[in-house]
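Notes from the 1:1 (GR / supervisor)

We went over the backlog. Supervisor wanted to see one worked example end to end before approving the batch request, so GR pasted a single chain during the call. The sequence is below; no edits were made to it. Supervisor asked that the structure be written out right there so they could see what the output format looks like.
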Amino acid sequence: MKHRCGFWTVGIVLWIGWSVLTMGCGSSGGLVQVGGGIALSASPTVIAADGMSSSVITATVTSTGGTPAPIGTQVTFSTDLGRFSNGSTVYTVAIANSTGTVTVTLISGTVEGTATVKCSAGGASQTIQVYIGNVAISNVQLSASPTSLAAGGVASSLITATIKDSLGSAAKAGTPVSFKTTLGFFSNKQSTYTTQTDTNGIAYATLFAGDTTGVAEISCTAGGVTSVIFVEITQNPTPTPGGVANIAVSASTLSILADGISSSTISAVLKDSNGTPVVTGTPVSFDTTLGTFSNGSKSYSTTTTSADGMATATLFAGTTPGTAKVTVSSGGVSSLIYIEIRSF
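Structure output shown during the call:
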């Protein structure tokens, strides 16, 4: 009889007890004997019914005596739920290593239930089950950095939520996550904020301190599970004022009559380089080129008299019309303003 390999051969079938060993052209040396066995494992044993989650099924096939099945042994897998990576419910693969192991990937569908995966090789068979279902969120872990903010609405804390399912795996990307705070506000300027998990099952929200001090209770909810973290919002410490860096000058009126009695109140606000008003009692001098101050002189010295760094002087018109240049000086810094002294 001419074999399909292109030459004549004789097939030999050797009966050994109740085991069968077949040899011939194209054989890798033998098939699994009926007396062998199959050990199955699945990782994980529970997957989500989302049409894309998967479990790796590993089969270790042995011949009689416990030796690994030979390379080339055909192993067939079948499932009654979900599909294999070839898109079918049946998948046949040949052992390609000396350990007698093969793996296939079971992919979930959108139908919940228990998939029974059967593995067969050389007359031996074994089954294993993988649950396919909607895996629920079971844990929401929160962290805040930093955990204390100064009031004023500028300082912020990054709130990180790590979402895990009942298998301990990261929640799938796109899982809705909502944040809520009792104090301060999120980047959307609201006390609530909604976002989604990334590919690592993590969601973020930025909490800004408002003007109110206290303890902000931030809650985060995903899949019906809620977790809480606290961020303290403290009083913004008043900075110690520095030296004079800026003088802002204004006048109650920029035009007065040259009648000898009309006047304009000159106000100066002194601040340091950080924009903080200088301390009360900071010396300030006013000088004018026309008219006189309340002391009857063209120069007037005073100090800041309030916490807002303000000092004032009253300029009186003389009887000579023109433009008065008023210079306000303190700590080596000067600023100007011009007052018109007009004729009748």
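Supervisor's comment: The two ends are 137 Å apart (CA to CA).
Batch request approved.
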